[in-house]
Amino acid sequence: MTMWRLGVVSLLVVLLAAGCLPFGRATPTVTPTLVPTPTSLPVLPVVTPTPAPANLSSMTPTPTAPAAQPTGEGTTYVVQPGDTLYTIAVRFGVSLQALIEANQIEDPNQLQAGQVLVIPRQQ
Predict the structure, then answer these.
(1) CATH number, residue 106
(2) What does the DSSP assignment read for 44-107?
(3) Rounded Cα–Cα distance for residues 87 and 93 (Å)
(4) Which residue, among 63, 113, 106, 120, has the nearest Cα to 83 in the 3D structure?
(5) Buried b (16+ CB within 10 A) or exposed e, 35-65
(6) How many domains does the chain have?
(7) Contact, 100 vs 88, CB < 8 A?
(8) Is residue 12 within a helix (H) or strand (E), and if so which, with residue range?
(9) CB atoms < 10 A from the CB of 92, how many?
(10) If I label 19, which of 1, 40, 47, 80 is the partner at 20 to 30 A Cα–Cα?
């Protein structure tokens, strides 16, 4: 009986080994992976700043905002691009309604750059 068992075990080993072989199956292929090559960084030129002129008194400063001019009724202000009646009222500490009334403005949305407004005195 041991011969019979040895024969059965041998047959099972052969069958298992045969199942692992690639009969009728495609064999896997190895696809090479591309390895990136390093690229060199561009060389940027060195920029040397130009020194400022030694005599700054010859330079004329440009005003950033127009100054308000005093008048008998208060002060005047020249409207700049982007100004609104509200921002002008806040800047001078007056109410929006007082600013509208002092300038007899009918449509507050029609404010124009360059327009001269009277800024009423604070009460």
Answers:
(1) 3.10.350.10
(2) PPP-PPPPPPS-GGGSPPPPSSPPPEE-SSEEEEEPPTT--HHHHHHHHT--HHHHHHHTT-S-
(3) 10
(4) 113
(5) eeeeeeeeeeeeeeeeeeeeeeeeeeeeeee
(6) 1
(7) no
(8) helix 2-20
(9) 18
(10) 1
Residue 75 belongs to domain spanning: 69-120
As to burial, measured by CB atoms within 10 angstroms (0-12 exposed, 13-18 middle, 19+ buried), residue 99 is: buried
* Matching residue, tokens 């950033």: 64
Residue 44 lies in a domain: no
Structure tokens at 86: 């509200």
In this prediction, residue 39 carries a pLDDT of: 82
Give dist(CA 118, CA 123) in Å, integer.
15
Residues 71, 75: Cα–Cα separation, whole Å: 5
| pTM of this structure | 0.43
Query: Cα separation of 99 and 119, whole Å?
Result: 6
Domain membership of residue 58 (yes or no) is no
Q: What tokens does 14 get? A: 């052969």
